[in-house]
Design goal:
CATH topology of the largest domain: Cobalt-precorrin-4 Transmethylase, domain 1
Number of domains: 2
Strand content: 15-25%
Bound molecules: S-adenosylmethionine
CATH class of the largest domain: Alpha Beta
Order of helices and strands: EHEHEEEHEHEHHEHEHEEEH
Radius of gyration: 21 Å
Number of helices: 9
Helix content: 25-40%
Distance between the termini: 51 Å
Amino acid sequence: MKNGSLVVVGSGIITPAHLSQESINRIVSADIVHLLVPDPLGKAAIEQLNCNIKDMGDLYYDDSSGRNGNNRVEAYDRMVDSIMADLRKGLKVCAVFYGHPGVFVYPSHKCISIARKEGFSAEMLPAISAEDCLFADLGIDPGDLGCQSYEATQYLIYHPPVNLASPLILWQIGVVGDLTFTQMHPADNGLAMLKARLLERYAETHELILYEAPTLPLMPVRAEPIMLANLDFVEVKTITTLYLPPCQTPRVDLDFCSQWHIDLTLV
Ligand SMILES: C[S@@+](CC[C@H](N)C(=O)[O-])C[C@H]1O[C@@H](n2cnc3c(N)ncnc32)[C@H](O)[C@@H]1O
């Protein structure tokens, strides 16, 4: 194994309240911390744990073109390059992303994969994601009916099979339909396309929830019920997640249950 190691941790949705003790230890003991946490208070809390910080938020600015914050995918590649440059110097690198570092975070998976291929020790620690907050705030237990999670634009494009007897969570509706990766809002017809797609399976009157977990202590939860018919008129932010409750009851496979003598009174 080469000198230099990488650990990727998550700051949770409220930082530092959601930071695990294990993540705190790894931040404190790192030679350098690469940080992508949007909330200034969360950032300040991490700076108190370790003052050797590189703010990956700065990498939204592209030095070579002198342009600010345009293509997110290009910015993510610059984050990977910056993390890898310190790792190749033999440093103990800790990268901190908000929420769970492996949930909808391309650069975290990418740099772990490159680091391992190059012979470095690289690992990811689990953390609290927006979905974990949603389960707590909306009182959803995926153990009841299962749970399906998709990125909203991918849902438009791939239209994956969905179990209508199980909840559906759609991430990144705040940038739905934007294939340029340059916007901080939905594409012009993004919400209309999403509504049209959902109407292929759900009724106009189906009640959905616009969900935003608090990012600061004492901030209220946004859990706003809306009818699917109104989806193209609602206000969404980059942090908004869409929750769709099931619209069918689960079907019992009577043939299977009878073949295997399953007592349905116990289910
Ligand atoms: C790039 S992903 C990052 C997810 C993050 N790594 C996590 O573990 O939650 C951004 C998406 O996560 C969801 N999200 C982030 N913050 C949220 C919040 N405070 N409340 C609800 N959803 C949130 C939204 O769907 C948003 O578009």
